[in-house]
Amino acid sequence: MDLKKVNKKSNSPSLTVNMDEAFLTQLVNCLPMGAMVVNTDAQILFANNQLSEILGYEDSELIGMNIDNLLPAQFKANHTHLMSQFFANPRKRLMGEGRELFASQKSGKQIPIEIGLNPIQGQQELVLATLVDISQRLRANNMFQRSIQAAPHGVLIVDQAGIIQAVNQSLCKSFGYSEIELLDKKMEMLLPQRYQGHHSALRHSFHREPSVRSMGVGRDLTALHKDGKEFPVEVGLSPFINTNDEDMVFVSLLDITERKQMETELRENNTSLKEFTYVASHDLRSPLRGISNLIEWIKEDLGTTTPEVEYNLTRIDDRIHKMETLIDNLLAYARAGKATLDTQVIDMHKLISNVTELLDLPAGMKLHKDVQLDTIVTAWTPLETVVRNLLSNAIKHHDSKEGTIEIRCVAENTLCHITVTDDGPGIPPEAYERIFSLFQTTSDDKSGSGIGLSISRRLAQAHGGRISVSSNEPQKGSTFHVWWPRFARKENL
């Protein structure tokens, strides 16, 4: 739009400018927001292309229009008075700061806007008004607010001065405050007294080098409830710049009271488990060893004169040894829940060979090995224990003296996948989970303790792996699957 045409149509004096009017027109049309020049009579002398596009008018329709025609009805009555006030004391400022402003499009639709007022010095009193359609900004802000409210944990938005600008209901619930009680307050009100003094320095330090991180890494953090009680929290910090180009911090806060209680209970349970281990190792073993020794002495005293008594004593001694084995298995199960720290590079060919060489394999039983993965990094003993338990289980519970067992080892992304397949009686699907419980066996054979599979699953889980079983349909038998991390990770230790 040409400023010369504007001047001709408005019959008003030309603006006093020190540049070519065509260049000025082009310059204003390049602005990213709507712009118009208005005189003291509220007449639009110039409007750029962006304003026409925002309001839905043709360029020519805006020139000479009274600006009141662009206002919703509720703003028109007071607008003449507000314009008089502005021209009485013209200065660069935002219009209606702190209030919601709207403009009417040609279609009658109202849109939210921001207006900047810039007085123009010249032969007549004029103002350059810039107009920004903030519909998208408000939609984004509403989505942001909904996201905050939908968060399952506490969220607050804090400015550079530590003033709370927004909170969600989860945070209000955690602290016992209403939203009104928190907004525009210093965030230090949520901290115990002993932290408040130096928190300002920590906040300034964060704003000097803002980054997404956890707060107080390595320290136990506590927050202050409205009732004065402290509770443990985890805090995440995420800096961002809001729509007004202000530095803000998105603070996520999680009440970890229940987790701390569970950790305390776990420590107490572990302590009890250690005490149980001590009792099992000493108080349970000692009587059994004493009975076993007594039986040996009785055997020596009787000699071979009473074979029937000797037979019964031998049976008692066998049961004592089974009891000792059961105690050993229970202790192994208790220890299986904790990962082993001594990791190493393990040759899978060697590990599987070591296990198979020690197996009590019946003469008619065949064992096939298919090892396609050379090495993994983990602890030797736990993995060896799992492999030995699964192979021993396949042999022990086979329903024939002849059969085939296969152990296979392959890489699956970051996991080592080990399978032990047999052609035995198989396992019904309803027993797939039950057999991994304590004292459960895969058959009616009572020779096993029913602990081996439980230990294997606990060992796998403790080292970041898992174990399951499936049937070999349509053939007989079952396949046990073990997925074990190929590379030991800290969180698994």
Overview of this protein structure:
This protein is an alpha+beta fold. The protein has 14 helices and 19 strands. It has helices spanning 3-10, 21-29, 49-55, 59-62, 73-88, 135-150, 169-175, 179-182, 193-208, 257-302, 307-335, 348-357, 380-396, 452-462; strands at residues 34-39, 44-47, 93-94, 101-104, 110-120, 126-133, 154-159, 164-167, 213-214, 221-224, 230-241, 247-255, 343-347, 365-371, 375-379, 403-412, 415-422, 466-471, 478-485. The strands form 4 sheets. Strands 1, 2, 3, 4, 5 and 6 form a 6-stranded antiparallel beta sheet that branches. Strand 1 (34-39) and strand 2 (44-47) form a beta hairpin. The two termini are 72 Å apart. The model is unreliable at 1-19 (pLDDT under 50).
Question: How is this fold's topology laid out?
Answer:
Elements: H1 3-10, H2 21-29, E1 34-39, E2 44-47, H3 49-55, H4 59-62, H5 73-88, E3 93-94, E4 101-104, E5 110-120, E6 126-133, H6 135-150, E7 154-159, E8 164-167, H7 169-175, H8 179-182, H9 193-208, E9 213-214, E10 221-224, E11 230-241, E12 247-255, H10 257-302, H11 307-335, E13 343-347, H12 348-357, E14 365-371, E15 375-379, H13 380-396, E16 403-412, E17 415-422, H14 452-462, E18 466-471, E19 478-485
Parallel strand pairs: 14-16
Antiparallel strand pairs: 1-2, 1-6, 3-5, 4-5, 5-6, 7-8, 7-12, 9-11, 10-11, 11-12, 13-15, 16-17, 17-19, 18-19
